[in-house]
Specification:
By secondary structure, the protein is of the alpha/beta class. It folds into two domains: 2-160 and 345-358, Glycogen Phosphorylase B (Rossmann fold), CATH 3.40.50.2000; 170-342, Rossmann fold. Helices cover 45% and strands 14% of the residues. It has 14 helices and twelve strands. The chain has helices spanning 15-30, 49-69, 101-106, 117-130, 141-150, 170-179, 202-215, 231-239, 254-263, 278-285, 298-302, 314-322, 326-340, 345-358, and strands spanning 2-6, 34-38, 75-78, 94-97, 135-138, 155-156, 189-193, 221-225, 246-249, 266-269, 290-293, 307-309. The protein has a six-stranded parallel sheet, with helices on both faces. Helix 6 packs across helix 9 (254-263) and helix 7 packs across helix 12. It is globular and about 65 Å long.
């Protein structure tokens, strides 16, 4: 068996999808399978969205078809449903579906969330391509239900977590954290990792932190790994006198992120929607208690080891973790690490190999 992975357009900067592709490529090669990656080439686009469409829709089909033609008999795997449009042009390929949130939003399934005309057309093209795929793997049961409702039959192959994500020695971790500009050894910090998408619920993160500081005089700081806050949330923090208590870290190295997970007093992940929830497992693997939303797929990913909260429950849940004694916290940490081990990268790769064989 030989496998050609179709990766993401590099200029889009989709770090999680690049990480998934790299993990799968490495795992396949370690399993003795010849595997390569081909990506849509950055020619006209770069940081310009509209020129990027020239690369993705006009130039890349030619490049991808040539790559496939040069590898007869190879399994072709589109590793991100966001590139599902290519599944309509590459006969017999398989696709990993991480979520259908963009497609669902374009269809008007989320109240108050609208997609522009060009976005709706693009998502329609993606959906049409996905319906022509030879097979679709969904990363969670929640995603599979969306796939089977909108596209067709799918099977679950949960994302894996590489062994890299593990606890770090405290002094080394704090050195890396302080190099990133975070000064929080005494009071500690609450950690959130996520982009600025609406479903990541940054509003919930910020307002929950404000309520937490009202409740607990000596509550820790808040560290957010991701994009800058929008003006409205930044204003809310300043009005609460907490502008200096929140730090935003962008484009940090994985080693710094691992240190942040390892030393955080609690990791909060209040997403409204997700496809899988990778940061939950990364935090658990690094020894950090997790508070996340009590709905799928977060409950699938976090298992019995995460602490679940919904609207109106966040402050109490986070405060509960901060107030845990050492024995209780150690038990939560141990349960989290055990849960993360259910999602090994090696296990994920093995399931993909079986998936490929069924669709050769």
């Amino acid at each position: 068996m030989k496998v050609l992975l179709v990766g993401n357009y590099e200029a889009d900067g989709q770090r999680s999808m690049d990480r998934f592709c790299t993990m799968l490529l490495k795992g396949l090669r370690e399993a003795g399978i010849q595997a390569e990656v081909v990506r849509p080439a950055v020619v006209a686009g770069g940081r310009n969205k509209w020129l990027g469409y020239i690369d993705k829709l006009l130039l890349s089909p030619l490049t991808l078809r040539r790559a496939v033609k040069m590898r007869p008999g190879w399994v072709v795997h589109v590793v991100d449903q966001g590139n599902g449009i290519y599944a309509g042009w590459i006969r017999g390929c398989v696709v990993t579906c991480h979520d259908l949130l963009a497609i669902r939003m374009a269809r008007g399934e989320f109240a108050g969330r609208r997609t522009g005309l060009s976005g709706r057309v693009f998502q329609w093209l993606i959906l049409r391509g996905l319906r022509r795929a030879a097979g679709i793997a969904s990363v969670s049961g929640a995603t599979r239900r969306d796939v089977e409702r909108l596209i067709g039959k799918s099977e679950v192959i949960a994302d894996g977590v590489v062994d890299y994500w593990e606890p770090m020695e405290a002094e080394e971790a704090w050195e890396r954290i302080e190099e990133a500009g975070v000064r929080a050894r005494e009071a500690g910090y609450v950690l959130h990792v996520g982009g600025g998408q609406w479903y990541k619920n940054r509003t919930g993160v910020v307002r929950g932190f404000i309520e937490l500081r009202k409740r607990t005089a000596h509550a820790p700081k808040l560290v957010i790994v991701g994009l800058e806050l929008d003006g409205g949330l930044d204003t809310e923090l300043k009005r609460a006198g907490l502008g200096d208590e929140v730090m935003i870290l962008k484009d940090i190295a994985d080693e710094t992120l691992r240190a942040l997970y390892a030393m955080a007093r609690v990791f909060i992940f209040p997403s409204l929607e997700e496809g899988f929830g990778w940061p939950i497992l990364e935090a658990q693997a690094c020894g950090c208690p997790v508070v996340t939303t009590g709905k799928e797929p977060m409950t699938e990913t976090g298992g019995a080891a995460a602490i679940y909260a919904n609207a109106g429950e966040w402050t109490q849940a986070v405060a509960g973790v901060l107030e845990m004694n050492e024995t209780r916290r150690a038990a939560v940490v141990a349960a989290g690490r055990e849960n993360a081990q259910r999602f090994s990268a090696k296990k994920m790769v093995g399931k993909y190999i079986e998936f490929y064989r069924r669709h050769q």
